Write the structure tokens for this entry.
Amino acid sequence: MPGQGIGSASTIAQRSEAYNVMTTTTPKPGGLEDVVAVTSAICDVDGKQGRLLYYGFDISDLAARSTFEETVYLLWYGRLPTRDELDALRADLAANRTLPPEVLRMMGEFPREAVPMEVLRTAVSLLSMYDEDDADNAREANVRKAVRLVSRMPTIVAALHALREGREPVAPREDLSLAANLLYMLFGQEQDETIVRAMDVALILHADHELNASTFAARVTAATLADMYSAVVAAICALKGPLHGGANEQVFRMLQAIGSPDRAAAYTREQFAAGKKIMGFGHRVYRTDDPRATVLRELSRQVGEDHGDTMWYDISRQVETAVKQEKGLYANVDFYSASAYHVIGIPTDLFTPVFAISRMSGWTAHVLEQYANNRLIRPRADYTGPRDQRYVPISER
Ligand SMILES: CC(C)(COP(=O)(O)OP(=O)(O)OC[C@H]1O[C@@H](n2cnc3c(N)ncnc32)[C@H](O)[C@@H]1OP(=O)(O)O)[C@@H](O)C(=O)NCCC(=O)NCCS
């Protein structure tokens, strides 16, 4: 059943057996690797075959044929929409883009040099105070909140970028898709169809990924019956780290440091010799190609060719070859999104916020699923500290 806490034992006997196993066994290896913490029908990651499914639909199929809005519907409702249902969701997502004026005003007070993910985290948190449904945890109210959250993420990201540059934020348009409107607000003018489609595909690919760190954070928070805003703020906090969503920004900084394709192999060797990781490689679940990276590799090549700027793609290819040879590691979702986003014109420190725009759809889907069949998520720690210590008064220490 969806939404259960860690361990799916349902009877008291099973639960205490599970408890004994968990408390007498040293958790190896760490990081909850391969631990099944919840059941979920949303997203299936097959790490051996390199397959990713949203409600049974292969990600490469969705990337080739769907749109971000349709994918959002799929994640929230568990099936593809009819034409009318899709039109209704599109209209709803478009109508909710404007930020409450108080939130925009407060964003204007933030320091210009503030880290974009911190601005995003704070702005999303502020939104809850201006949401009339905030305290209502019924599914209908939570779907309305999810619509507002997904709609407003691009507006926040574009506004923070304008404000830090001392410009007036560009007001959202209702006649554009979410991807087209994001680019329109960021750059102040509509982008051509191929760029909009590239952005849309990138959003589809990043929308959900099972129980990744940020989604887990969202579900743990939702499982306490805290509100949806609290859950997604927890998720944004987890996404920020360089081992998770923060990796795409680090990837581009690395490509810049390498500077040209012929330096990639030497750079990679030096990094490994120094015991450093190469961002954008490796994954907790995939032991083969990450299917999202396969689509993004091609997307990065295409946008590079369309813009007459393939250097970042070329460096990326060389790094990928070198990392594969040296360590046998595969590129993950963050690797080729970096070069693609750069060529599209997205500022490097907005790469992770753009990831968050997309992943908001997955976080909200998981929060809805968690509430639908909730049990507090409360695992145990393998205690390694001392026991039976005698308290010594401070004067005697
Ligand atoms: C994603 C990631 C956190 C998964 O971590 P994990 O499942 O805990 O895997 P580990 O970090 O234990 O890695 C296993 C081995 O591969 C190595 N490895 C994993 N990713 C590596 C990378 N990007 N560069 C170099 N070595 C790497 C580790 O050093 C470790 O080697 P060891 O066994 O000799 O110590 C990890 O691969 C990583 O840090 N990647 C870079 C950050 C990144 O791109 N994050 C985005 C993920 S979508």
The pocket of coenzyme A is lined by residues 31, 243-244, 247, 277-284, 327, 329, 332-334 (CB under 6 Å).
